[in-house]
Amino acid sequence: MIELRGVTAARGPGLRPAVRDIDLRIPRRGHTAIVGLSGSGKTTLFSLILRFLQPQEGSLLLNGQAYEESAPWELRAKIAYVEQETPLVPGTIGENLRFSHPEATDEELRRVLREVGLDGKVDSLEDGLDSPLSPATVSGGERQRIALARAILRTPDVLLLDEATAQIDALSEAAVHTVIRDRDRDRDRARHGAVVTIAHRLSTVLDADAIIVMEAGRIRATGTHETLLATDDLYRRLISALRINATQPAA
Ligand SMILES: Nc1ncnc2c1ncn2[C@@H]1O[C@H](COP(=O)(O)OP(=O)(O)OP(=O)(O)O)[C@@H](O)[C@H]1O
C-alpha cells in the first residue's frame, strides 16, 4: 500500500507548491484512477510516488515503510511506470523490452507481447525480437504498448500508468485496458497489485475501483464513479469533457 501523509511539494526550488496537503491511501490491490484538469497536480503525484520529487512537508510510505528508510532502487523495483510519451532506447524490440530486466528470456518477452497484443506484429517481422525499433516505425499506441509490456515483465507491486492523451488506435486502447483488468484472473493486474492511472479516457475512469479528483494541487473528492457523479460538480464536468454521456451506466 502507498500512503501519502500531509504531502506538500513544489516542482523546484522557489516555486510555489504544485500539490498541497495530500492525504491519500492507495490500496495494495485494485485500480485507482486520478482525474483533474491540466495543471491540477496529477503528474506531480506520480513524481512523488516515484521519488523523482521530494515533499517539502509530509511523508510517503510504501507498505508501511517511510520512503526515506528504503533505498531508491528498492522502491523502483516495486513500482513500474508507464509514461505517456514512452522514451524508446535505440536498439531492437528485444533490447527495449529488456531495458530494466536484461535477464528476461525470449519466452518471457513473447508472453508480455501477447498480453499487449503485439505478438502478431513482432512475429511478422523478419528478425522478430531482433528487429530494430525506431520511433518512426511505431505508432503512439504501439509505443505505449511496448512500455506496458516492459512494465509487466516482472509483476510490480504498483503499476503507474499515465494514459496517452493523444488519439491512439482502438487496439492499443483495448490492450491497455486488458492489462489492467483481464477476464483471465491470473493476468488481471488490478487483482494482483495496485494499478494507478492518470486517466484520460472514459473507459479507464469507469473501470476504476476508486477515483481521485484533483483540483489546483489538492484532492477535491474521492469516490466511485457513481458517488462522484451524484456529488461532485467538477467530476461531472470532467466526465462530460471526456465526451461521455454522464447518465450512461458503468460498463
Ligand atoms: N517541470 C515543472 N517545472 C515547474 N513547474 C511545473 C513542472 N511540471 C509541472 N509544473 C507545475 O506544477 C503544477 C502541477 O502540474 P502537473 O503536471 O502535476 O499537473 P497535471 O494535472 O499532471 O497536468 P497535465 O494533465 O497537463 O499533465 C502546475 O502548476 C504546473 O504548471
From TrEMBL:
The keyword ATP-binding applies. This is ABC transporter domain-containing protein. Keywords: ATP-binding, Nucleotide-binding. InterPro entries: AAA+_ATPase (IPR003593), ABC_transporter-like_ATP-bd (IPR003439), ABC_transporter-like_CS (IPR017871), P-loop_NTPase (IPR027417), Type_1_exporter (IPR039421). The lineage of its organism: Bacteria, Bacillati, Actinomycetota, Actinomycetes, Streptosporangiales. Residues 2-241 form the ABC transporter domain.
